[in-house]
Amino acid sequence: MNDSSLPSFGHAPSAADLDRLARAALASIPAPFADHLPHIVIQVEEFPDDELLDEMEVEDPFDITGLYQGIPVGERTQALATQPDMIFLFRQPLLAEWCETDQTLEEIITHLIVHEVGHHFGLSDDDMEYIEDSAD
C-alpha cells in the first residue's frame, strides 16, 4: 500500500548509527578525563545476553540499555589490565527508551556514555545519582 497521506518513518537507527553517536559522545568528554579513555571499546548489541541478565538478576532485557565492563581506573594494575575496557550499548532497549521519552537519541546515548564512563572511573550508580541530583 502506497498512501502518500501516511507519514514516512524511514528506518530505525542501525547498530552503526548508535556506534557513531556513542563515539561522538565519548569524544566530547573533556580532559583530563578523556586522557583515560582512548582504549575503551564500544560494542553495540541488540540485547544483553541471557548470561548477563542472570548475573545482574534482571528478567526483562529492555531494562538494561548499557553496561561498562572492565577494571575501574583506580583499581587497575598492569597485571590486571589484560582485557580491554568496554562499553556495551543495547540497541533494542535504547530504541524503546527513545520512543518512550521526549529525549533525542543523541541525548540518551550521551547520558548513557557519561554514566558508563563514570563506572570506568569507579563511581557507583548511587554516586552518579548524587552528582546528578546535586547539579540540578
TrEMBL record:
- Gene Ontology biological-process entries: proteolysis
* GO MF entries: metallopeptidase activity
Record's keyword terms, sorted? Hydrolase, Metalloprotease, Protease
Name of the protein in question: Predicted Zn-dependent protease, minimal metalloprotease (MMP)-like domain
Q: Per the record's keyword annotation, is Metal-binding included, yes or no?
A: no
- Biological classification of the source: Bacteria, Pseudomonadati, Pseudomonadota, Alphaproteobacteria, Rhodospirillales
Tell me the InterPro entries matching this sequence: Zincin_1 (IPR010428), Zincin_1_sf (IPR038555)
The record ties this protein, via Pfam families, to: Zincin_1 (PF06262)
Q: Where does the UniProt annotation place the signal sequence? A: none
Annotated membrane-spanning segments are: none
